[in-house]
Write a sequence for this structure.
C-alpha cells in the first residue's frame, strides 16, 4: 500500500498518543534494520523538547499507524532529520512491506525538500535523486569477546596486543585500571562535555555541544532506562581518575557509539582504544550483539570493526523551483567549505562565527 492511500497527520513529538508511541516501538521490534536508538520515539521526544521545529508525521491506513516519519521543518519548506547535526540514523519507521511515495510524503508534511546525511540502509524510495553512500563501521560481538578477538587478523590483532601493553604501562604509572560500563555519576557527564568541547577546539573543529539542544538531549537520555533508547556513559579510570569516556545510546542488543573522548595528556597510552577493549568485553557479557561506531574512516574504527553497514547522504524533493535553488545553495556551500578548510586562518574565523551563532540560537 502506498502513502497516497493513507491519511497523514503531522504533530509535535509530545502530541503523540500512548497508542501511537506503542505502535512505533513495535515496528522497531519487528525489523532489525530499524533498531537504531536514533530512530526511536524516545530520541524524537527528547529532541522535540528542545527544538520547536521538531515534528512527526504519522501515516495511517484502515488498520491504524503504518509508518512514522520524524523530521524538522525549517524555513521555505526545507526539511531535516529530527536532531539534525547529531542524529546518526535517519529515515521512515514503517510496517514491513510498506511501499511509500516520498514526494507525496513531503507534500503531506508541508516540505519541498528533505535533506539527510545518515539514511538507514534499505530505504531506496528516498534515493531517487541520487545519493552518496558511505560506510559506517560496526563490531559484531554476538558470539562473545573471545570470538571477536579471534576474528581479527594482521594489523588489528597486533594493535590489540600493543594496546593491552599500553594499558599495563598506564597502570604502572597512574594506578589500577577500572572500567564502568554505565556510569551514573552526573559529574562525569559534565567532564565528558568539557573534554569534548576542548577536543573540538584543539582540532580546529566546531564544538559539537554548541549545537542547539544536544547537551540537554544527552542529559535526558542518560536518565532513560527505555529498552529502545537509553544513554550509556562508559568510563575508564586509572588510579581513580577518568582517562577516557564514551557516551553511547543503547537499543536492546545494539549500542551506538556517539561521543568518544579521552584525556589528551595521556594520549600516548591510547586511553580511547583501551576503553573500547573494555567496552567490547562488557558489552558481549551483557548480551549486546553489535556496536555501531558511526560513519567515518577513523583509524581506530577501521582497526576494531568486523564489517560495515552503508548509510546515504542526499535529498528527496518535490518538483518546484525551490529544490533547484537548494541544490545550487548546497553546491555553493560545499565549494566554500573546501576553500575555508584549505586556509587555517579562514577556518579559525569561520569556526568562531559558527560558534557565536549556535550559542545565540541555543538561548
Amino acid at each position: 500500500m502506498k502513502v497516497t492511500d493513507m491519511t497523514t497527520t503531522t504533530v509535535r513529538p509530545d502530541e503523540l498518543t500512548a497508542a501511537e508511541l506503542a505502535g512505533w516501538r513495535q515496528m522497531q521490534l519487528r525489523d532489525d534494520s530499524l533498531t537504531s536508538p536514533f530512530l526511536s520515539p524516545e530520541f524524537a521526544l527528547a529532541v522535540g523538547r528542545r527544538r520547536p521545529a521538531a515534528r512527526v508525521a504519522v501515516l495511517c491506513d484502515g488498520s491504524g499507524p503504518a509508518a512514522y516519519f520524524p523530521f524538522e521543518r525549517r524555513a521555505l519548506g526545507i526539511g531535516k532529520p529530527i536532531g539534525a547535526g547529531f542524529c546518526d540514523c535517519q529515515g521512515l519507521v514503517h510496517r514491513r512491506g510498506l511501499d511509500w511515495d516520498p514526494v507525496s510524503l513531503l507534500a503531506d508534511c508541508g516540505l519541498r525538500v528533505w535533506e539527510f546525511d545518515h539514511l538507514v540502509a534499505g530505504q531506496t524510495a528516498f534515493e531517487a535523486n541520487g545519493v552518496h553512500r558511505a560506510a559506517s563501521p560496526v563490531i559484531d560481538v554476538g558470539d562473545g569477546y573471545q570470538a571477536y578477538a579471534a576474528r581479527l587478523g594482521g594489523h588489528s590483532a597486533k594493535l590489540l596486543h600493543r594496546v593491552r601493553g599500553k594499558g599495563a604501562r598506564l597502570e604502572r604509572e597512574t594506578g589500577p585500571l577500572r572500567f564502568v560500563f554505565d556510569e551514573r555519576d552526573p559529574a562525569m557527564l559534565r567532564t565528558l562535555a568539557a573534554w569534548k568541547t576542548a577536543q573540538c577546539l584543539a582540532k580546529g573543529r566546531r564544538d559539537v555541544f554548541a549545537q542547539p539542544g544536544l547537551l540537554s538531549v544527552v542529559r535526558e537520555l542518560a536518565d532513560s532506562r527505555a529498552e529502545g533508547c537509553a544513554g550509556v556513559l562508559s568510563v575508564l579510570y586509572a588510579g581513580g581518575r577518568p582517562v577516557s569516556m564514551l557516551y553511547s545510546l543503547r537499543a536492546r542488543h545494539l549500542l551506538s557509539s556517539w561521543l568518544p573522548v579521552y584525556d589528551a595528556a595521556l594520549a600516548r597510552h591510547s586511553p580511547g582504544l583501551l576503553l573500547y577493549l573494555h567496552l567490547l568485553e562488557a558489552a558481549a557479557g551483557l548480551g549486546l550483539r553489535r556496536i555501531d561506531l558511526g560513519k567515518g574512516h577513523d583509524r581506530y574504527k577501521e582497526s576494531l570493526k568486523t564489517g560495515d553497514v552503508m548509510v546515504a547522504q542526499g535529498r528527496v524533493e518535490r518538483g518546484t523551483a525551490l529544490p533547484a535553488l537548494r541544490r545550487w545553495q548546497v553546491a555553493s556551500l560545499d565549494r566554500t567549505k573546501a576553500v575555508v578548510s584549505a586556509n587555517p586562518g579562514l577556518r579559525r574565523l569561520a569556526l568562531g562565527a559558527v560558534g557565536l551563532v549556535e550559542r545565540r540560537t541555543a538561548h
Q: What stands out?
A: The chain has eleven helices and 13 strands. Residues 323-342, 344-363 have pLDDT under 50 and may be disordered. Residues 154-174 form the longest helix (21 residues).
